[in-house]
Structures are given as structure tokens and as C-alpha cells.
Amino acid sequence: MKYIYDLHKTMLSRNLILVYEGEFTQEITKSVLAMAERNMDSMGEESSIKRKVFNVMVECLQNIVKHSDDFNPLSAKRNAAIFIIGKEDDRYVVTSGNPVDKETADSLKERIDSINKLDKDGLKAMYKDIIKSNSLSDKGGAGLGFVDMARKSGQKLEYDFEDMGEGFYFFSLTTTILRF
Amino acid sequence: MEIINLEGTEDTPKILLDKGNGIFEISGRSLPEDSAEFYQPILDWISAYGEDPNPETLFTFKLEYFNTASSKLILDVLSSLEDIDGVTIDWYFHEDDEDMEEAGEEFSELVEIPFEFKTY
To answer: Where is the SiaC family regulatory phosphoprotein domain (chain B) (predicted)?
Structure first.
């Protein structure tokens, strides 16, 4: 049972206030959002910061919900993903992790890199360009999630692809929201 | 014309479209799982309204939060209003919500409809 204590210690040392692992649906998205909101309310968080964190959480969670069916290397792992919120004195850290195939990994990397190259005005132009020209994907996405996360946070998006073997990668994405 | 009156939920906005009383309003939170499905009846309603609109239409957006999929559909709503004569938009944002103010400004740059910005 020591792993429970270890997990607890890891959460404390990394300032994690919420960790969810498992299946992601819209119902679960709503529950996670409600928990995080209550948490921020009880800490008396400023409403402008709360909104930005909420914003980033929604895009992150709905990305996982929309794309979780894409991946099925092992039926037991279907829909498996992780969502984490950390809070330090000066920042919130919103992280998601989910498996993707090689092709998806390559296109995600390219998209996030292109977003990270842009400044505030560049991001605004990209947002307007996409919203004008793109129609919704068959999964109902507008292709605006990452751009919006970068805009609302004002920070670069950090990512990582960990090789899971058999042509799959674990995609981790972290967005930081500064508390000032 | 029928009235659309939807109560808001934790992930869908409150919608009131009432031609007779001249009330046209979308407010609250918009982050439905399927934005296109949620907004389709609203787009259909506006398209029917456009056949025989009131001389003036003041359409109010008072959104607290919307996700990116909804932002695409909000632009579709605005675009469908663009073809109707006498439409103005009241875009409300919370006084400390710069992102919602900026979102309204961006929408106003994308369509040819007069916008009024108001705080609540």
C-alpha cells in the first residue's frame, strides 16, 4: 500500500490539486470543471484568473473527449488519458496526456510549433483566419483550441511525446496561467 | 412565429428568441459537446425570421464563457443576422473580462453589423 503514500507525496511535492485518469466524456468534463471551479472559489481566486484557467481546461478536456476514440492499440487502454491541474504561488499549470499515433504526433508537433512562434498579434491573426475559413471538423472541433489556449494563457504551450512502443506516443501538453 | 426559449445549463447557454416581443438573446455559458447540433435550430430560426423580420432587431449576447467550437457557431449566428436589415448587436461583457470584450471586437470585425459594447 506504500504506493498510495508515494502518490500522495508526489501530488504534494508537485503542487497538484486535481488529477483525473481514465475515460473522458462530456459528463466527466463538466464534473472536473465543477471541481476545479469550486477549488478556485474556495481559495478566493480572482475572477479573471479563474476564467482563463477555466478556458484552458475546457479546450484541453474537450480535445481529449473528441479525439479519444482515435486510438485503440489495446482495448483496455481505450479512452485512457490523464488530466492534471497544479497550483503554485504564482501560477496554475494545466496538463493533459493521451496516446496518439505517429501521424497525429507529427501533425500536433507541427501545429503547436507554428503557434509557439507567434506573438500576441500573430495569434490573433491566426485565430481570425481559422474562424473565417474553417468549417467544423467531423468531430465538431473548430481547429482553434491550441491557438485559444496560447492566447488566453499568454504563454508558450509545452509538449512532449513519450514513445509507448508499437508506433504510439504519449502526448503531454502543458499550459501555464500566471496569477498576476 | 414560434418562440425559442431554452433554459441555460452548466454547458449550454440560455436562448430567448421572441419575434412578437422583440427579444433576441443568447446568454450564459456555451460549451456543448456538439456545438453544431446545439446551434442548428437557432440558425434555422434566424433564417426563417429573416424572411419577415421586424423593422429593427436588437440581438443581445451576454456570454460568460464560450469554447472555441461555440465561437465558430456564434460567428455563424452573426453571419446569418448580417443579411437582415435593421440588426444591431449588444455585446455584453463583465467589466473585468477583457477576453470577452476582445472576442466581441473580433466578431465585430468579421461581420458587417453595428456592435454596441456594454458591461454588466
So the answer is: 7-119
Contact between B107 and B99 (Cβ < 8 Å)? no
Q: Write the ipTM.
A: 0.90
What DSSP designation does A135 have? P
> Radius of gyration over alpha carbons of chain A, in Å?
17
Q: Give the distance between the most distant pair of CA atoms in chain B.
A: 38
Contact B71, A130 (CB under 8 A): no
For testing contact with chain A, the best of B9, B64, B68 (most A CBs within 10 A): B68
CB-CB contact of A65 with A25 (8 Å):
yes
Nearest to B63 by CA among B111, B115, B99: B99
Distance from CA of B49 to the nearest CA of A (A): 24
Please tell me the pTM assigned to this model: 0.91
Length of chain B: 120
Q: Which of A24, A34, A32 is nearest to A78 (CA)?
A: A24
Q: Which residue among A48, A65, A141 sits closest to B96, beta carbon to beta carbon? A: A48
Query: Minimal CA–CA distance to B91: which of B58, B43, B45, B69?
Result: B58
